[in-house]
Each structure stands twice: as structure tokens, then as C-alpha cells.
TrEMBL record:
Its cofactor is Fe(2+). This is VOC family protein. Keywords: Aromatic hydrocarbons catabolism, Dioxygenase, Iron, Metal-binding, Oxidoreductase. It holds the Pfam family Glyoxalase. Signal peptide: none annotated. It comes from Amphibacillus indicireducens. Belongs to the extradiol ring-cleavage dioxygenase family. It comes from the Bacteria.
């Protein structure tokens, strides 16, 4: 389908700040099923396929607990390849006595859990794009109850959960922002995303290539919500992967046209959305 590969812009690695690296590593290995690609005393890169890190954990100095009612990450979302994988995950979480939220979004079926620091994780599987309901440029999405009984029928009896499938990718990211008008300009005119769904006046969903969403934006923490402290638990940054260097240069030009901040650090390019959320532009 190509929604999460070049030439389409998509989400790469998400970088989280956590309070206790050892505690978080145990959770992300035992509950989520990641493998450690590499680690230091304060950081770890996690992988599903043994080659590419899609999640990085970092324990900052003088770390503070997660701050409520601020901008930043609402959740990051791991996209599994098949319904069987999601069904296996349901049984695994049940055996671990993990509290789970769930939803049927018409375009996808999803589970929601929180890590030990309160960072929310969505684990989901897409429905066939052929059944997504488009009305012009907008795709129909909602949150209906997930039919667990129907989902569980996709399991193979006797097979045990084996961790994250190697094909697991970072499907999307959903963000708390301070307002939507300038934020929409930043993500659409600056970064090049298309609006594919509006949820009243409080949320926007954006994508490339007519995916249901690579990025969600909402003001559910309050219009004018403040940025959290730099050393608080939450998201440090996330990657947007573009097609090539030319696409990055064009995006930088677009960001500068609308007055957005773009900085170079050690040969890497970062920008900040109007809520102060840090984004790395890479390819």
C-alpha cells in the first residue's frame, strides 16, 4: 500500500523521556514485545525487526513525572501486520492482567494501554483501504466498541504470543496541541500533509497518500495548553521521513515561508510546531 514508505512522508522513530530506564525496558520487552537494538546507561533504541529502531527511550537528568494538561504526545501507535497479530496481543495482555482500552475506528481496530510513566500506546491493525469510506477528501472515522469476540476468532489455537511481529511499524502519532489554526498551517503548508478528517473544532487528522492519518492533532488538554518542562516524562521528539534531500529542502523552504523555526544540529534538521513539539526532518 505504501502508506509508510517512500516517496510518501511518514512517521519514523518516536523518542520518549521516561523516569526509570530499567523499569521501562522491562515493560517494553515483556509487555509490548520490543527487542533492544542498543543501549547506554540512560538511553535505549528499541526494535521490532532487529535492524531499525522505531522507539527510543531516554532517562533525562532530574527527570520529572508526566505533567498533565500540557502539549505533547497523546499517543504513539504501533501498526501490526494482521488481525491475527492483534488477536494474539489481546490474549497476551489479558494473561498479563494489563488494563486495556479499545476502539473500532472504521478504518482500523485498536487497543490502548499506558506504559509505567503514563505514556499512552495504541496498538492497531488497519482494515483493507478498499473499505474505508471517503466523502471527497475526508475519510469516515469514529470510535465504536471493538468486537473482541470476532477479533479473537483470528487466532490460531495453541500458538503463543511471540512479541512484536518483525513487520511492526510506527503507524501514526497523535498530539496534544495548544490551538488548531496556526497548527494546521504548520502541518499542511509547512510539512506538506493533507487534512483527511475534522473532528468538530477540537481535532484534525492529517496524512499523505490518502492514509487515514499519519498525524492526529487535538486541543483536548485545553486551548492554550502550556508546553511541558524539558525534563518531564513524555515525548522528546519524533521523526518525519521524507523521500530525499530535495524533499527536505523544499519542506524547509515552506516552513520558512510561514515563519516556522528550523534548526540544524550535528547535521540533523529539526523544526518546532506552534506548540513547541520537536520534529526531526529526515530521509
Amino acid at each position: 500500500m505504501g502508506f509508510h514508505s517512500k516517496p510518501n512522508t511518514h512517521i519514523g522513530q518516536v523518542r520518549l523521556k521516561i523516569e526509570d530506564l530499567n523499569r521501562s525496558l522491562k515493560y517494553y520487552q515483556d509487555v509490548i514485545g520490543f527487542e533492544i537494538l542498543d543501549r547506554s546507561e540512560t538511553t535505549a533504541n528499541l526494535t521490532a525487526d532487529g535492524k531499525t529502531s522505531i522507539l527510543k527511550l531516554e532517562q533525562p537528568e532530574n527527570v520529572q513525572p508526566k505533567q498533565r494538561r500540557t502539549t505533547g504526545m497523546y499517543h504513539f501507535a504501533l501498526l501490526l501486520p494482521t488481525k491475527k497479530d492483534l488477536a494474539d496481543f489481546v490474549i497476551h495482555l489479558s494473561e498479563k492482567n494489563i488494563q486495556v482500552g479499545a476502539g473500532d475506528h472504521l478504518v482500523s481496530e485498536a487497543l490502548y494501554i499506558k506504559d509505567p510513566d503514563g505514556n499512552e500506546i495504541e496498538i492497531y491493525v488497519d482494515r483493507d483501504p478498499k473499505v474505508w469510506d471517503w466523502n471527497g477528501e475526508e475519510v469516515a472515522m469514529t470510535t465504536d466498541p471493538l468486537n473482541f469476540e470476532a477479533l479473537i476468532t483470528h487466532r490460531v489455537q495453541g500458538e503463543k504470543w511471540q512479541g512484536l511481529p518483525k513487520e511492526t511499524i510506527m503507524g501514526h502519532i497523535h498530539l496534544h496541541v495548544a490551538e488548531l489554526e496556526k497548527t494546521q498551517e504548520f502541518y499542511v503548508k509547512g510539512l506538506g500533509f493533507d487534512i483527511v478528517n475534522r473532528f468538530g473544532s477540537q481535532a484534525l487528522f492529517l496524512s499523505t497518500a490518502k492514509y487515514h492519518h499519519h498525524i492526529g492533532l487535538n486541543t483536548w488538554n485545553g486551548v492554550g495548553a502550556p508546553k511541558p518542562a524539558d525534563n518531564s516524562v513524555g515525548m522528546k521528539s519524533f521523526e518525519l521521513i521524507y523521500n530525499d534531500e530535495a524533499a527536505i529542502k523544499a519542506t524547509i523552504a515552506n516552513l520558512e515561508k510561514i515563519g516556522a523555526t528550523v534548526v540544524e544540529e550535528d547535521g540533523r534538521t529539526f523544526t518546532y510546531d506552534p506548540s513547541g513539539i520537536r520534529i526531526e526532518l529526515t530521509y
